[in-house]
Write a sequence for this structure.
């Protein structure tokens, strides 16, 4: 027997004797521990714990590595993917963040397209629709519209200002009109056909507001303001506002409707992608919560040797890290 072998044998005999009465023996381990009794260091290899009745030494760093599901969810609710990155689910984090970036890009893109199309139809209306022309046609045909009850003379001097030029062109912003008087005339005409039979069911909104651009391309009542329709002798077409011929009396009226429909479509697409943004935030928050919970359940099994001081120097013991692979 060599000196090294004898020394190791003697140490194994002495260690149990040094334990106080009632203290549990060190757990039996297997492995290939290489102890250097002539230095301060212990060469260690992973060991397996055999005696599970002994005390376990848990690594406090495990608790420090846990992730807060609530914090993960809050992070992703603000920035999709952030909670996944916090929970070390990097691939899912990248997917949610990419969806966020793409969605916002499309929201911006289609909203800008809607703005561009809106500007186009507003310019088209300013070039081809005239509130003055609409007012003149109404005055010319007010007798037909009200079965002779109202006359042009009752309103003519009230609806026009001193800027009015009978020979035109009276361009926007239509300072030749007293808007409140034009609306009063429309109300008076509508009163003689309460069911809207003569087509006068709405007031002309003030120039350049959103409702102004909407109504002139929506209701046949305002179709006579377009510059491709006759300004006299056609009031009969307005007697029934639901008549299809009324909707076809102006090609510009129909073209303008299509332009506005295209602008609304662009805004609808933008709104749809904005909804995707909101859903992405919520889904990412829920997923981040789940990812953090899953991460906490996944602990790595790791048993390794450590040193504890004794009267005979440092001796090895096993330190167990519990693991649950989900």
């Amino acid at each position: 027997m060599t000196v090294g072998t004898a020394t190791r044998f003697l140490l194994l005999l002495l260690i149990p004797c040094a334990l106080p009465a009632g203290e549990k023996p060190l757990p039996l381990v297997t492995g290939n521990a290489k102890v250097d009794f002539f230095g301060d260091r212990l060469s260690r290899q992973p060991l397996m714990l055999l005696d599970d009745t002994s005390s376990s030494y848990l690594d406090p760093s495990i608790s420090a590595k846990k992730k807060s599901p609530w914090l993960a969810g809050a992070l992703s609710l603000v920035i999709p993917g952030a909670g996944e990155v916090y929970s070390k689910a990097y691939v899912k984090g990248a997917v949610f963040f990419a969806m966020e970036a793409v969605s916002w890009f499309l929201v911006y893109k289609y909203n800008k397209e809607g703005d561009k199309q809106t500007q186009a139809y507003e310019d088209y209306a300013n070039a081809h629709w005239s509130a003055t022309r609409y007012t003149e046609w109404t005055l010319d045909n007010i007798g037909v519209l009200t079965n002779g009850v109202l006359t042009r003379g009752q309103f003519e001097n009230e609806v026009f200002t001193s800027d009015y030029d009978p020979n035109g062109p009276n361009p926007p912003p239509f300072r030749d009109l007293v808007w409140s008087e034009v609306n009063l005339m429309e109300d008076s005409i509508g009163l003689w056909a309460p069911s809207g039979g003569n087509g006068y069911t709405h007031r002309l909104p003030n120039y350049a507001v959103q409702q102004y651009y909407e109504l002139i391309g929506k209701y046949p009542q305002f179709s006579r303001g377009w510059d491709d329709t006759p300004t006299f002798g056609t009031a009969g077409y307005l007697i029934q506002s639901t008549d299809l011929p009324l909707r076809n009396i102006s090609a510009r009226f129909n073209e303008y409707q299509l332009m506005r429909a295209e602008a609304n479509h662009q805004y609808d697409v933008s709104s749809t992608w904005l909804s995707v943004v909101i859903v992405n935030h919520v889904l990412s928050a829920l997923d981040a919560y789940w990812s953090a919970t899953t991460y906490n359940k996944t602990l790595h099994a790791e048993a390794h040797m450590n040193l504890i001081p004794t009267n005979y120097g440092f001796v090895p013991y096993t330190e167990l890290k519990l693991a649950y692979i989900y």
